[in-house]
Write a structure and sequence with these properties.
Elements (H helix, E strand, L loop, with lengths): L1 H9 L2 H50 L20 E6 L16 H7 L6 E7 L2 E9 L4 E8 L1 H36 L1 H16 L16 H49 L6 H29 L9 E4 H15 L4 E6 L5 E4 L1 H18 L5 E6 L4 E5 L32 H11 L3 E6 L5 E6 L4
Parallel strand pairs: 6-8
Antiparallel strand pairs: 1-4, 2-3, 3-4, 5-7, 8-9, 9-11, 10-11
Helix pairs in contact: 2-4, 6-7, 8-9, 9-10
Bound molecules: adenosine-5'-triphosphate and magnesium ion.
Length: about 450
């Protein structure tokens, strides 16, 4: 039993589909053949019964006026004309000659009008026959028999023919079932082959080939979804590779500077005090930069927000807190914050959201001239805008500012690695918000982000 269950589980889909198709078609073929056989048999027997009824009526009409008597037909060989006899209800009125057709109590009852007419299968002179016993006027019954072996033979032949047709039909169904399963599952076979090839080669650029002008069905749409998924996978693999390449490229410069300073300090005895101090300060600054960059990279490489840390965050309070922190970092800048959100909350990770807002505030303060105000506003519909009065972002830089490591040429003199906005956009996306940059009317940069309250 268990082995059977295991076989059922292991049996490939193609076999199961072929079996299902075969069973369905075979069932229909068998059903149709059985129905045809039943109808043919019924028609043949019915024809015989009609003949018997006609003959009985004829005999009854001929004997209407005469007293009950026994008629003997050509019963020896039961050829047409049919074999007939008349049987009285009273056995005392029986003729002297013996009856040629079998009689019993039921025959007498029909003669007495106590029983309805009936058909019987009998054997006369070694032949199969069908006999009708029916009422033939007061006190007598007429019995008519006709040979039925030809009918039986016809029924048998019809049965054999139908069995042959059914067998052929089942064989054909099996062939068709196999063919249907094979052609129907061809895309699945292609899909499996591609999946196996990808697993073996780890090449996400492979795709399932769909024949040109293919029909839209569940399987092709599965193949298309699979291709789309492969496309996403390829992109994400490429993005990861790019990130690693960019990161190693970007880390090279500060690491070289670090090494230079470290080598310099290794020969500290040959340096003056001020040279040593400069080298130490440079080393510390570069170490901080590299640490910051590595941390940013790790955050960027993490894609989704960890679910356990998600909570309802009051956005107004969070931005307020970030603005306070920015005031501490950037004493020369002035921050103005307007909160119209009325304490509304969004689901999110507070630390990451704070990172996002701080990145925007840091940029605004970094790129603004000293004393220029940074205007932060949280609208009632939870749209957060950060606007500064600095040089703004040149139109040719706008499409790229959210790319990793991208810094406009004007910004190269300022500290930074170009990861801040990439991270900000990633955090925004993870929170279901779109972060965009634009030129503020009247100069400066304007960053805009709309959250969905849930
Ligand atoms: N408020 C702004 N005004 C003008 N230019 C900006 C502003 N914010 C960003 N940019 C431009 O977009 C670039 C990318 O910003 P991003 O925050 O990603 O990097 P960064 O500030 O240079 O470095 P990091 O944030 O990693 O320290 C900046 O180098 C700058 O050219
Ligand atoms: Mg920045």
């Amino acid at each position: 039993m268990r082995a059977h269950a295991r076989w059922r589980r292991r049996r490939p889909l193609r076999t199961r589909l072929a079996l299902a198709c075969t069973a369905a078609v075979a069932l229909v073929v068998l059903g149709v053949c059985a129905a045809a056989y039943t109808i043919i048999r019924y028609e043949l027997v019915h024809q015989l019964d009609l003949n018997l009824t006609q003959q009985a009526t004829l005999v009854r009409q001929q004997n209407r006026t005469e007293p009950p008597q026994v008629l003997h037909g050509e019963c020896a060989y039961l050829a047409a004309p049919p074999c007939t006899q008349i049987v009285p209800a009273d056995p005392a009125a029986d003729p002297a000659a013996p009856y040629v057709l079998p009689i019993n109590r039921a025959t007498r009852e029909v003669a007495a009008g106590e029983r309805r007419a009936f058909y019987t299968k009998i054997t006369v002179g070694g032949r199969q026959a069908r006999m009708l016993t029916t009422y033939a006027g007061p006190g007598k019954a007429v019995q008519v028999a006709l040979r039925s072996d030809t009918v039986d033979q016809g029924v048998r032949q019809a049965g054999e023919l139908m069995a042959a047709v059914a067998a052929t039909g089942v064989l054909l169904a099996a062939g068709l079932g196999y063919a249907v399963a094979r052609t129907g599952l061809a895309p699945v076979a292609r899909l499996t082959a591609t999946a196996k090839r990808i697993a073996a080669t780890r090449d996400a650029s492979l795709r399932i080939e769909l024949p040109p002008g293919h029909r839209e069905d569940e399987l092709t749409s599965l193949a298309e979804s699979f291709n789309t998924m492969l496309g996403e996978l390829e992109q994400s693999v490429a993005a990861q590779r790019r990130l690693v390449a960019d990161a190693s490229h970007e880390l090279r410069t500060p690491l070289t500077a670090l090494r230079t300073n470290a080598e310099l300090l290794a020969r500290a005895d040959r340096l003056t005090d001020s040279q040593r101090e400069r080298a130490t300060a440079g080393l510390q600054r570069q170490l901080r930069e590299v640490t910051g960059m590595v941390n940013d990279l790790i955050e960027l490489a993490r894609d989704e927000e960890p679910l356990p840390l998600v909570e309802q965050v009051p956005l107004g309070a969070l931005v307020e807190h970030c603005v306070g922190a920015a005031r501490g970092h950037w004493p020369t800048a002035t921050f103005a914050f307007v909160d119209l959100a009325d304490g509304r909350t969004i689901p999110g990770v507070p630390a990451r959201l704070a990172r996002l807002v701080s990145n925007l505030l840091d940029n605004a303060a970094k790129f603004s001239p000293p004393g220029a105000p940074v205007e932060v506003m949280l609208a009632a519909d939870l749209e957060l805008t950060v606007r500064d009065h600095g040089p703004g972002i040149a139109p040719e830089d706008l499409p790229y500012v959210f790319d990793r490591f991208y810094r406009a040429s004007a910004a190269r003199a300022l500290p930074g690695s170009g990861l801040g906005l990439a991270m900000a956009r990633q955090i925004a996306k993870a929170h279901g918000a779109a972060l965009t940059a634009e030129a503020a009317p009247g100069g400066g940069a304007l960053f805009r982000m709309r959250f969905e309250a849930r």
